Each structure stands twice: as structure tokens, then as C-alpha cells.
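Case study B.
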Amino acid sequence: MKFFALLKYELRICLPWLLLCTLAFTVIGSILMKGILLNQSNYINQGYYENYSYYFFASYGPIREFGPLILMISLALGVILAVAQFFLPGVFKTWPFTLHRSIRPQMILWSKFTAATVTFVVSLGLIWTLFYAYAAVPGRLYLPVFFTTYLEGWIYILTGLIAYWGTALSSVSTAYIYTTRMLGLAVATGAIFLVLLQTSITGAALWAAAGAGVLIIQLFDTFLSREY
Amino acid sequence: MAFWIQISPGSKQPIYTQVYEQISQAIIKGDLAAGDKLPPVRKLAAELVVNPNTIARAYTQLEQNGLVSTRTGAGTYVIDPKLRQKDAVHISALCERLDSIISQAKLLGLDYGELTELLNDRMKRFYHET
Amino acid sequence: MQDIIIETQQLTKYYGKTLALDHLNLRVPRGCIYGFLGRNGSGKTTAIKLMLGLLKPTTGSASVLGCDAQVLTPKTRGQIGYVTEGHRLYRWMRIGALETFQKAFFPDRWDSQLFDEMLDYFDLGKKQKIKSLSNGQRAQVSLALTMAPDPDVMIMDDPTLGLDVVIRRQFLEGMIHLIQKKGKTILFSSHILSDVERVADRIAVIEKGVLRADCTLEEFRRNIRKVHFVFDGQIPDVIDIPGLLHKRHNQHHLELTLVGTTDEQIKNAVEATGAKDYAVVDLNIEDQFIEFTAREKTKPLFQWEA
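Model:
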């Protein structure tokens, strides 16, 4: 009951960004998809069967064009959600009101994470799935569409969450030294680069999980031990 | 209830004293007659926006000085003047008059001993020593 | 049922090198309205935040309802109503949504009727957004949100700072309303002395992080007085009288501010100094507070040339 009250509150904060993101991704993605459909011949000419590194994953197929788009929107969404959930309460001094509640303070973090994850899943994950399903319909494209590309899309979405946790950590940090406070963002950036440098989905997923894990643990520690 | 209490928090008098004074004044003037019930502590506290303990304190003092009597569960009532043990209200008025006399004596130049002697002398005419 | 609801033991807080609280020892008994008096920046907010576990002590401890402030359990927090400094609430929320939010944390003790009555009394609508409210209205919402769960302890951090007299009075009414119920305790910090005088049973005076007084309101009012000594000739340099706080003089007139000095001690001092006459002056609470917390100064800031 109490968790759902918190969750409802957090979702309400995420909602405008959820809608904006869904809209942006749908619109831009549709334009991109149309472009792919019309220009499939280009890909044959460019010899896309070879493993050239457009960006980092060893992915084939024109649908990989979606990669940069998902990455950019995902990173932006991650930063924005973290600012809305973790930075603004500091600016508007609402932490004392939020924290003095008949709950364990961990619940506050879990409600924020849940709301953020839901936002990512719906606005990016769901739409990406629809785009992929559309492209994967047999006969839609005469070039093959690979399932690994679909998984890659999810890796990009996950990097957005890493950016989210990194920004959150920097937002709640109360370290006096500026560089210490920026550690969250620095670790997130480092983790994202590591993820994108991988040549296999499994490797990417593992580094993403590791990066996320480190940030989440540090976030709990900082959030629960700092002063307000 | 034909009396009204007004609290001035910025005054030199503590609040419970103000309440006490105003109620006892009301009793003197007759705004509160014998048998009248004082408002319950809680009600007066809420009306005046004052701590209930302050009101209770004033009521206790009124009772100690014999002006009111509290019956548990029934409330606080003004006592019939004939039944009062010590007529504190009248004594208070008497004190005022005494103060006035003493000031006059001092102005005339009488010292402590002279005034005491004068007073004893006059009192002997009323009270017969046993 | 505990007798002492809020307690601090040698509570000390440093911000870097700045001492904000110096070994604070206070105890708030059950059923008491405890006024926490001090000038702005004297350490009141620091003390309150330490009591609620929002700050960490440098040394010492605080506890509420028997629970250490650094590890307040959810259950204990549910019994404490906290009116935060500045009444900061979620700006984008409507009052009705904020009510629903707050209510969810008190499933078995939320008084909907009281909440509605208070909003009605304050002339506030549930559709209004917090960001559209004035500071005073936000304070009113804050009060309603804190009182509706019928807290056992109410801790209020300068709730009427910067607010007009009408709202200050409403807060006092709320406090009286709560204290009439059995077993409730209120701690509130303020620098509005007349408000404190109305409702407080006990007061603590804190100045630059140091507890200067911790007594009943009555004791405070009774024990701080001024005495005027009149001299024929020279005023003696040294006055030996217990409880002397300040002294001021001009020509033949000596004004002493005393704390806790008995009438007899005053008379003894009159004899000892050879004063011609003396008069005891009662003070109102503002003057008492000013005298009590003032530094000894040789020259007043503003001076009239005779």
C-alpha cells in the first residue's frame, strides 16, 4: 500500500518524460524505418554482410541503424529522469518531507527505480519491440533481420539506465570536493563505454550489469547515510 | 455569561495571573454571580488559544482563594460570598486602600515605626485585645 | 508509556569547524508543549533535524519515544508529526493528491473529517496546486497534513516563520486542539515570544548552540526581573548580588537585571551597597528574553546626546 503510494507519485513525475520519449522515438523511428525500407539497395552495395564496425556491436542488417537513435534517447532519458527524481528534491528541499515517513527509506529508492524502469520499458522497450516486429515480418524487408540486433537495442536501453543511476548518484552526493561528487557520472560514462566496446551481446550485458550493480550499491549507501 | 476575558501576551503579567484577575474582577463586579458556572478549562483554553494548564492554574488559584469551588465531573462554580472562607476579592480591594493610606503617610514624612504606632493606636479603638 | 518523549544527551554538532550545537541536554516530558526559543541561527533547526535523524550528531545522541533518532523505526516515524522548515511540499501536486499520498501512510489513523474541516477553515480547495499557494497557505496545508494522522508527538520547526498573525494564531489553535487529547506532546521552535508564552508549558532558550535555560514558562517569567537602585552619592563599582546578569547606570541610578534572585537577596544588596531606595520591575517576556540573551555591551548602538 505504502509502496504503491510512493510508486504512483514517482510514476506521475516520470509520466511527461515517458510520453515525450515515446512520441519522439515513434516519430523519429518511423522516419528511420521508412528510410530503411526505401534504401535497402544501399545496404547491399555497401556490403553490409561484412563485419564492419559502424558502431561497436558485431551486428548485421539494416535494423542496426536504430542503434544510435536508441542510445541517444536512452541516455537523455536516463539523465532527465535522475534529475527529476534525485536532483530536484534537493533544489526544492522536499527530502525532509519525503524521508519522514512510516517506511524504511530503502523503499523510497525502490519506488524511484521501479518508476524509471517502467518508463524505459514502455517508452523505449515497447516501441523498439514494435519496430523490430514490424521489420521482422517475413517479406517486409528483402534483407535479413537478426534477433541479435533486437537484443542490442535492449543493451542500448540498459545504458540509459546506467546513465540514470550515475546521474542519480551524483545528484545525491554531498561530497565537498566537486570531483568526488561527479564520480557517479564518471563511473556511468566509463561503464557505458565498456559496454559499447564489447563484441558480444553477453559481454555487453555482463558489463552493463556490473556497472549498474556498482552504481546501485553506491547509491543506496550514499542515500541512506547522508544528511538532509 | 456576561463576562469576557482578554489576554495580552505582551504584558508584564503572566497569562494565568491575567485570567485570575479578570475572573475575580468579574466576580467583584457581579458579572459572575454566586452559583454561576465557569467555562470548562478545555473550552476556555481553546477560545483564548492558551495552554489548558494555564487556565487550570488560574482556576486552582481562584479555588485556593475561596472564590470558586470545583466539583469533579460537574465543573467549577462561583461560591456564594457568605460562604467564602477568605474573602480574597475584598481583601484585595482593602489592600489597595491600605496602600493608598501608607503612601500618604510616607509623603507626610512618617517613618516605619511612626506609622506602625499610629496604626496600632487606631486599631485598638476597634479591636479589643484579649 | 514513557514519561520522557524527546531526549537529547550531550548532543553536539559541528559543521566543519563551526559549532552549531554544544552538548545539548534537554528532555521533553509527555503531555507538554515545549517551546524551543532562540534567535535565528541559534541552533534550533539543527537540534530538530538531529532529533529526526536527518542530521548526524558529531557526538552525543537524541531519541524520540524511546527510539534513537539515528535509527527511527517506521512505526515510530508514524507516530511523529513533523512540520518541516519552510513547509516544503511537492510543488506540482494538487492538495487532494497530496492528501491521498499522505493518507496511504496512515491507513488506520487518518482523520479525514479533521483534514476537510481544516481545509475548509483555511479556505483551501483540493484542486489547488501547491506551487500556486502562498507561503502561508502552504503552511496551512502542511499543518493539516501533519495533524490529520493524529500524531502522538508533533515536532514543528519554526512553523510560523515569516507568516502573518492570522496564520500564527491558527497554528496555535491547532496546537491547543492537539494537546487537549490525552498523552500528546508538542515541541515547537519559534522566535515569536508572545506565541510561546500563550501555549508553552516549558521552554528552552538556546543561543549560539548552547542551552541557556530549560525550565517551565512560569519559572522563566518569575525569575528574570530588573531592579532599580537609587544612590545619593557615587554608584559603587562592584555590586555583589547573586544572579546578576547585566548592570547599567546613569548618574545616581543603577539598573540591574537579575535571574533567580530572591527578594531577600535584593534587600541584602540594597543594604550592602547603601542604596537610598530601590524598586523591583517585572518584565514582559520579550524584554526578559532580550535581557537573558544579550551580551554585555559598554555602549549602546544608538545614543541620544543629552
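Chain C has two domains: 4-208, 221-293. The remaining cases will be described in the next quarterly update.
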